[in-house]
Design goal:
seven-stranded mixed beta sheet; alpha+beta; ph1033 like fold
Amino acid sequence: MVGHYMLNTTNYHTNRMFNDEQFKLSKAGVVEVVSKNKTIRPEKDDEIILLGYQNNKHSNVKADNFVLKYKAKVESVSPAEYAKSSDLNQRERDEKEKALKKGESLIFYNHKINLINKGEFEETPYLEDYTYSLLGIENYKDPQRHFANKITALNKNDFETLYKERIYASRTVLGRLIHALPQENRLEFILIAMEKFNTPELKDITCSIGLRFLNNYLNNHILELGKFLIASKAILENDLLDVIDSSSIGFDNDGFRDRTGLTDKLDVFEESLKMSEINSGDTIIQQAELFEEVLAYSEITQSTIKDILENHQRTSSEIRFNKLFENRRWPINIKI
């Protein structure tokens, strides 16, 4: 049976021998894996996805810097050799030294895997884009942590999703919009959803239904508040200008948790919910100006959601994902 694996070329060992440009041009290359095991998987004819850094930058280890580089097949695995001290990274050398102090022998083996290049990822190379489309991912903030090992076995469905560059549209938009919400709004939304659908787990509620429900929540709880703040700003600036200093009217932070703003790295979905932290220094004027930006994006977001609900959910890809994630909860992380 053919095995399926993710090979992390950002690792010290695999990166040491792997030459990105050579692999691209010659359609073949070698990766090195050091292990305590004398035999390893993958084996001949197994299928591999190579994970790497965007533009080979090693300084940024955040999710948005990890990309799917190549699709590959194992041509052969060379016989294991004893790893020299120079082959080991610092952690492995420390581990071996500790074993020696205890009078124990710790052996590391060097494995060289010969790969054939089967193509590059072109349409959707960023690992972060697959966060909500893979069964094996539960860490939505740092999906790359699931592939931190040199070699990670992939289930057949996740491998197919990556290899064919498929995205679960409704679950991706649902997950990104939910995690773009301020923390207390995220909690409020899930509590309202549990009451609405009469279930604490939300396993039986499809992502398309969840996306429609979230869209209503955004309109009724977020955008309406924004419109109220914008109207208040107009009153302060036009009708009360001679009576009170509008810059002195702000929010008391009692009862509020921090509201984390969004970074520009995410898509227009998150951009439509861009908010700064509410604290005692935020004024109605400042918050109204933020919501003016939010509302500017809202029409684009509404159009995107409508397109997914009316068109994407009927595609063969979306139908496949619906079956794969049939008993999965909505993709929500809540930290209080």
